[in-house]
Amino acid sequence: MGSVTFNNIILGDDTPKICVPIVGRTEEEILTQSEAIAKEADRLAQLGIRKAPVVDLVEFRADYYDNVSNQTMLIELLGKLREQHRDRILLFTFRSEEEGGELRHDRAGSMLDDICSWVMVSGYIDLLDVEFLSGNYRVVRTSTKAKDLGVGVVLSYHDFEETPHNSTIENILWDMEQLGGDILKIAVTPKNSVDVNRIMDIIQAAKQGKLSQPVSKPVVLISMTKLGEISRTKGAKLGSAFTFGVVGAGSAPGQLTLEELAKAL
Fold first, then answer.
1. Is position 165 annotated as part of the catalytic site?
2. Pairwise CA distance, residues 181 & 185, whole Å
3. Angle at 240 between CA 125 and CA 175, to 5 degrees
């Protein structure tokens, strides 16, 4: 498994990175959360819990934002987030309802291609999340445009029911790389500790190039819920490119606070 670099931050090396999501509905809520993340990162760095920057990536969960379909308001907000996090990777994510996103009642979902185009052209984001199950044509078209604009692609897959068989997970990782993913992210739901351990084994195998179909791009594998909590700490140490911590509201089951995560890593 190789590494990639965005905004001078290496993903996929031997240092686990931390990503914190922002899930506000209004610009005011989003910027308040964003500022809180920066302040908490500074506090933890000053305490010596983890070397600066503590937070390496900030994920803007745009499916929560009420005005995501307003191009002017969205791009202006992204500019403000970029200003607050100049030295971090800014990841833009619009999560679908089918994969755990915020329930929408507007036209944002049908405008997703336009929204992705706006944010890539803006020059403010480093990474764009693209859902693996959105269809091969959309994935390839979006990842190709992203590369032309210097934006990386996090290809993501979520299963809120179970943890698929190892061979299924490995095949998804392989397909993600072939479709243009720069970061290959899979989050699944464990039913028991065996499922959690399987994810840990796959992380380690991917890092060591021992998958049945080895991938050359960094992977992010997460076992969600409280049961899979160890995958967010030990999994990062074993080779998962980054892991998610929260400051305030979280975006998925089982996420640790930034302080808990920083101490664990």
1. no
2. 9
3. 75
Residue pair 188/164 in contact by the 8 Å Cβ criterion: yes
Is 51 among the catalytic positions?
Answer: no
pLDDT digits (tens, 9 = 90+) for 31-50: 999 999 999 999 999 999 88
Which residue of the set 85, 185, 207, 234 is catalytic?
185
Task: Fill in the DSSP letter of residue 105.
Answer: -
Residue 188 has what pLDDT?
96
Q: Which of 85, 158, 207, 217 is catalytic?
A: 158
With 0.90 as the threshold, say if the pTM is over it: yes
Q: Which of 158, 144, 136, 63 is nearest to 105 (CA)?
A: 63
Q: In sequence order, what E strands does 50-176 have? A: 57-61, 89-93, 127-131, 152-158
Tell me which amino acid residue 121 is: V
